[in-house]
Amino acid sequence: MTFALTDEQRALKAAVYELSKQYSPEYWRDLDAKREYPEAFVSELTKAGYLAALIPQEYGGAGLGMIEAAIILEEINHSGGNAAACHAQMYIMGTVLRHGSEAQKKQYLPKIATGELRLQAFGVTEPNSGSDTTKLQTMAVRKGDRYVVNGQKMFISRVLQSDLMLLLARTTPVDQVRKKTDGLSVFLIDIRGLKGFEVRPLRMMMNHSTNALFFDNAEIPADSLIGQEGKGFSYILDGMNAERILVASDSLGDGRWFIEKAVAYSSQRVIFGKPIGANQGVQFPIAKAHMAIEAADLMRTKAAKLFDAGQPSGPEANMAKYLAAEAAWDAANACIDAHGGYGFAEEYDVERKFREARLYKTAPINNNLIMAYVGEHVLGMPRSY
Ligand SMILES: Cc1cc2nc3c(=O)[nH]c(=O)nc-3n(C[C@H](O)[C@H](O)[C@H](O)COP(=O)(O)OP(=O)(O)OC[C@H]3O[C@@H](n4cnc5c(N)ncnc54)[C@H](O)[C@@H]3O)c2cc1C
Asked: How far is the CA of 240 from the centre of ligand 1 (A)?
């Protein structure tokens, strides 16, 4: 397996970086202060076709692989931007692509590719179940040609900026199924003007457009069901490797931004008559974090290449997400330390990126559960839950 990028991939990397760099630190800082969505940036990225990288050409996308999608997200964060505003579409639409009917694919994917429809919302987490997904309580009950949805979701991002949402709900109560993973179903719902559906924005540590959702007898068409009723958990699991690889790429981009920022600042800031970066107390944490980023990059690239080759990539995708999130966090701390007090000043952007990078140790899956996965599924150790 070669880890070198092709000429096309290098050109893609440079083009995404260049587009993203046009959105200045002030642009991101201002949105962060107001907790507003980067509408102009996401629209331009969509128009350029980057967010449709994984949509096959027959449905209007670029038909590229996971490695290209990973490069796109990495370069957004590497440039100083925040790919969290638009990363989810890349892994959500995989569920529609793999398990949706031909009619659903034809109806939605071309419009998602052009940006006519936005699918950036993914409703899984609930207040009473958290990481224990199979315990979620939102119910979708079939009534004729509709499902009636009742329940609550927590921390669901980009709902107000999306036309469509992928929803995971129970269609059979957990006490009536043989396995707890049975009886969950996935729906692709049109949330524009949906009655019985309330969105309450949550102000989070970073600018993430996150919400609490309430379904009160919300009626959705029966044909919004993806695949078979009751099989939704396995459909969501199928998309997890893509999610892990892409989120790892967000973290790698963050990590590279922190390293470059820390190197530049500590090489020119003179204190006690020499650049602070000459001191090993400043230099070594930066060098160490850089090595961790490079190592995580290898794992991310291996995972993406296995994914693109249609081979099992679960262990590598999970390890990449863990390693990249931890490496980015080490880089964030080395960078903020190197900046002294300026690391905490908004105009240096370090504190904003610091807040953004921290998320990936916790979400979309927390690193404890990745370690549990590796312990139990990769190493065959006893289950903790
Ligand atoms: C900014 C943000 C955006 C988000 N966007 C979305 C979204 O768009 N869609 C969506 O569905 N969800 C979203 N989430 C939710 C996110 O995926 C959850 O926060 C996450 O899955 C954990 O659920 P929880 O917060 O209820 O934590 P809990 O499940 O209550 O866990 C709390 C902590 O306990 C620890 N823990 C729990 N169980 C174990 C165990 N068995 N072993 C070891 N440690 C354990 C973990 O360290 C964890 O961090 C978002 C979250 C945030 C913060």
From this structure: 15
